[in-house]
Amino acid sequence: MSFALNHIKSMLGLNEKLFRDARGARIVVYHGICQSNPTLINSLFVTTATFQRHLQFYSRYFNIVSLDDYFAGRLSNDRFNICITFDDGFANNYRHALPLIEKYQIPAAFFITAIRQAGYDILWNDHLALLQKFGPSQLSFENNSYRRDRHHRYLSSAGDILLRQYLLKDRFPKKAEFMRQTSQLARIARATAGEDYWLQMTEEEIAWLASSPYATIGCHGYYHNDLSMLALADATAEMVHSRQYLEKITGRKVQAIAFPYGAYTREVVAAADETAGFRQLLAVDFLYPEDKDHPLIRERMTVNPYISIYNQMTAIVRGHYNF
């Protein structure tokens, strides 16, 4: 079935039984909330209006549970269960999402980095995304020239290196140096896009968010590095230090981590549990067959900003976007 046909069926009320009779559970993950143009920078944002409609739909058809309840198995047998999470720690979560979850009295978990403690108000990948959208068509870094392709990605002149992948694979100092060298270009791009698309929460906003009875705070790494690409000692240090940072701000124990980019290894999982002390580990897709039986790991479905609310809710119930 196509998205268009499923949308029409839902509009006519023909999918009412699907939603009311659905059973099971799903964790969904949002990232940014903006006022308009959600796909301006990437495919990870939805508008405030869309998010509100999602919350209304969840409230009408589903049982909405906190992250703690989800992991504890405190779920309804009579309705489909939904757990809402946010990744990346955008200030728009505080500005736009928090008022709505409080209005509808719906729990949500927010996974935040420690990038503010490192002295930055933006994640490295958002810095790059802004440049790829609003920056120059060509730039240089470390004696390599990169040209923006038709997909708004910086590709090396030889065509064999994507700048994002090159930076993703390294530790934060290289990302920081790239940000330093392109700071003026990024300043213009920031102003062009507007704060909703890149600004991180301040420590004061994190503390205020944590004070809400509907919000749970979790870790999302220290620098938003891919932990699976770091030496295990570095990945472990990031998890431990990000947890300490958030616990100091919130005054509460932080027991959940969402792996940046959904990336992890068996060793990272073991360190998250045994060394960093996390009891709730959030992936996107399970990366190993045995993960479905792991007591601490749960998978999540990323919200798609390109489809209608009915198609989104159908995908959540079915667990995939292939209609």
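Next protein, fold it too.
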Amino acid sequence: MSVFDSPGALLVLEDGSVYPGRAAVPGTRFGEVVFNTSMTGYQEILTDPSYRGQIVVMTQPHIGNYGVAAEVAESERIWVEGFVARAFTERPSGVGYEEGLLGYVRRQQVPAIDGVDTRALVRHLRERGALRGVITSERTDVAGLVAELERFPSMSGRALVAEVSCREPWEMPALGEERVHLAVYDFGVKTNILRSLAERGARLTVLPAETPAERCLALGVDGVVLSNGPGDPEPLTGIVANVARLVASGIPLFGICLGQQLLGLALGGRTFKLKFGHHGGNQPVKDLATGRVLITSQNHGFSVDPASLPAGCRATQVNLNDGTLEAFEVEGRPVSATQYHPEAAPGPHEASLLFDRFLAQVEARRGAAVASR
């Protein structure tokens, strides 16, 4: 069946707004509705565990042009609750694809709707903020759906990390000569974070989200990475306490996205929910020391309040669109964090130097420790 022969479907928002379209993939699913401004990288977006609990609207009007391939995926499955576009491409073109996007989404039974006026929808989300919503090809009772949305949990206060983290530790070897051994806390880690570290000579031990700090340190690792992940960081009190113990140990720490938020909380700061979040590969970030502007890949709905961080924490980068904190470091310690994604996937790669900086810190600390023995 062609997508153009598909039955009708609805996207209904909690404020009663209704956006009709076609059921490219039938079904009914609830979630927080957010928009992503990336022009490419739809497979990476679909498979990013940070989108757990969210329905994603793409601002790029044609989605699926180049198909999908296993090596591009950021995890082993699709994590978004639903997918919305102006138009899905039924037959991809180009080289290197293994199947079309819609076949990929259908196999994993994730509802998708196109034919939607995504410009009007995104303008509404920018004005109102991210809203709870439902995609459905099975129901037309808008009043009933809105009533259910009122009972559906908000992303604020929602802990989702346990749903996406690995269950057991696992190892990833360095690609090439091994330089360091790192632990990576899996809060919903993207494959390209692991690949970016391994390509730089890091042997990785990937740990479940709730792994005690003491067990991590007992591995004898040279540094720790706190990964990206979904949901609100504030309910993750056990993980925050664990991160605080890692900070106290003196081991080099690098937080990415949710990892930055957890690190901020562990240091005594606060987080808050953004109006509609940062989702896309074109977010401008200014480095406060050099004045250099990076175009970055981002996917987050919460942020650290820089005014809440204690003395000794220094903001190093800010978002040029809204002034929010993008990176900070702890003075005199090998502890730093970034709110955006230096591994991109999708997006620009100019921020990948953050991995080089962290590994240089790790090697310097290890060298100093060896010299003092």
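About the second fold: The longest helix spans residues 353-371.
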